[in-house]
Amino acid sequence: MRANSYYHERPQLLELLHDLYNGYLSLVDRYCQALSNNQTPNNHPSPCSSPIPIFKSDDESEVIDSDAESSLSFQPPMIVKTKEMDFDTVIADLVMKTVECNIILNEVNVVKKRWGESSRKIELQKNLLDVLESERLILLNDNATLGTE
């Protein structure tokens, strides 16, 4: 319910999700068509069928102005309604991926914190080693001085 209200408050994000989903279905349909074209002819129907139309442009003289193309990118995409579209599922998947991403980011932050603590401990141990080495040299010098007396 919370995710549903979140996406209704942000229609551009929902439009982007619709566009991505439509693009995905279009790619699936193209893939299935390519598979059916490469298969030997038989009487089996293609396992992939999508009601999404595939638009092919054979007119190579058609040129799209870059300003027109960039202005078209800001227009909301045309939504094709199909029975297979289940936007609640798409939104739920998006929310799940976001949660997974947040979990991974949290784990990365924990590892970074441990790494920072470990590097601090290493630095402190190096400083302690330097102090102990200087004390050893002082004691060696004192022993040498006492030995000559």
Automatic annotation (TrEMBL):
Q: Which InterPro entries match?
A: NAB (IPR011684)
- Which keywords does the record carry? Coiled coil
Q: Name one GO molecular function term.
A: actin binding
Query: PROSITE patterns this protein is in?
Result: NAB
Give start and end of each NAB domain: 1-38
Query: What name does UniProt use for this protein?
Result: NAB domain-containing protein
Task: Give the organism the record lists.
Answer: Phtheirospermum japonicum
Q: What is the lineage of its organism?
A: Eukaryota, Viridiplantae, Streptophyta, Embryophyta, Tracheophyta
